[in-house]
Amino acid sequence: MIYSMTGYGKAVAMFQNRKICAEVRSLNGKAMDLSVRVAPQFREKEMEIRTLITTRLERGKVDFSLWVEQADNVPVMPSINVSVMQNYIAQMNAAAEASGVAMPENMMEILLRMPEVVSHKDVCEFTEEEWAVATDVISKALDEMVDFRRQEGEALALKFRSKIDNIAALLASVEVYEKERVERIRARILDALESKLGVEYDNNRFEQELIYYIEKLDVNEEKQRLSNHLGYFIATMEGEHGQGKKLGFIAQEMGREINTLGSKSNHAEMQNIVVKMKDELEQIKEQVLNVM
User: The whole model's pTM is what?
Assistant: First the structure.
């Protein structure tokens, strides 16, 4: 079963008068590319959070956020950072003395407007009980993400089966033109020998050369290998998840066989079929990039 790398998950829980929220989003990526934003009180747990996310999600470009909100009916009281204020005062006194300018009368008003003097942040401490709630919220958000990826994977699997069936049907339609192709090649060579070149030729030798020429254009091996690749793609897709890279390699091999089939076809209708195969395969390659 395949999983998509695209997904979304969110979970929320209340702890005392605070709301703990976790949100995770992901897009396709060759490896795990993780961006984490964590509320200040949980900053020391960032490595633990990263390990949990990496273990559950494996691959993709992942954005994770964990934040805390006050309940609507609980006001957030601002606090004054006295040490920062004292530092500003010392610098302003030094600047006033150096320039001979008097200190302003509304000093407190000015100081309260300075950066980081007044803080509206929540208390940056947490209990083990609060961390247990936060861990549960993270796990639930990741569960939702995994379920989203599974559903997206099921939709991708349906598309892949449809495209593989289309390529298989196109491959089967090649057979109709193979005998016709041999007759056309024979007629073209005979016409060149008799009407254009006007030379005499040995019939047995002509047949031998024709067989040699047709063998070079034989596509049975390419057809068989392509058919095997189609079956292998489906079998891999139905196996364990995490096969996105392998499906990409199989799609590349399918492309090689289709290209060889086109170069050997030497027949307009067969080449049209090859173009249609390539179109179906390109759609598979685009979607395979999104598979875990």
Answer: 0.70
